[in-house]
Write a structure and sequence with these properties.
Elements (H helix, E strand, L loop, with lengths): L15 H20 L6 H13 L4 H7 L4 H13 L3 E5 L6 E5 L1 H25 L1 H18 L9
Antiparallel strand pairs: 1-2
Helix pairs in contact: 1-5, 2-4, 2-5, 3-4, 5-6
C-alpha cells in the first residue's frame, strides 16, 4: 500500500469529515426516498441483503463483514427480527447463535431490491457512471489506507 503525496502547492481546505457527512446525507436521502416505498430503511435493506447473501452466519462475523460493531448490529437486527424477516437461531454449540433470513425476509429483500436498483440507476444518471466508478474506487482506496493496522495488535 502506498501513501498519498501532495503535489506541490496542493493543500486541502476545510473539514473532510464535514464534506463526507454532507455527501452521505444527500446520498442517504436519495436512497431513503426510494427505499421507503418498499417499507424498509436503506440500512435495513443493506443488513437484510448481507444476511440473505452470507447467512446463516454468526453475528460477530456478520458485524465484521459489514464493518460495524456488535452492539450496532444487535440494535439493527431487532426490527428485522420483529418483522419476521430475520431469525436468530442456535449455532453449532450452546453458546453460539446464527442469523438467517426467513422466507418472508428473502421475499422482502427481493421486493426492496427493485427500489434499490431504481435509486442506484437514478444516482448513476445524476452523477454519471464514470464519476460513480471513480467515487467507488476512491472510497475503496481510502478505506484501505485508513484500515486499522492489525500487525500492531501482535506487538
Amino acid at each position: 500500500m502506498t501513501t498519498a503525496v501532495n503535489p506541490p502547492g496542493v493543500r486541502p481546505q476545510g473539514c473532510t469529515n464535514l464534506k463526507l457527512r454532507q455527501l452521505m446525507r444527500r446520498v442517504a436521502q436519495h436512497y431513503d426516498t426510494e427505499m421507503g416505498k418498499s417499507g424498509l430503511k436503506t440500512t435495513q435493506y443493506s443488513l437484510l441483503s448481507y444476511v440473505v447473501r452470507l447467512g446463516p452466519i454468526r453475528p460477530g462475523a456478520l458485524a465484521q463483514a459489514m464493518c460495524m460493531d456488535a452492539s450496532t448490529l444487535s440494535r439493527n437486527l431487532k426490527p428485522l427480527i420483529a418483522a419476521g424477516w430475520v431469525e436468530l437461531g442456535a449455532g453449532g454449540d450452546a453458546r453460539s447463535r446464527l442469523v438467517a433470513a426467513t422466507e418472508l425476509g428473502q421475499a422482502k429483500r427481493q421486493q426492496a431490491q427493485r427500489h434499490w436498483r431504481a435509486a442506484q440507476e437514478a444516482l448513476n444518471q445524476a452523477l454519471g457512471p464514470e464519476r460513480v466508478v471513480a467515487l467507488h474506487a476512491m472510497v475503496d482506496d481510502c478505506m484501505a489506507l485508513l484500515a486499522p493496522d492489525e500487525s500492531k495488535d501482535d506487538e
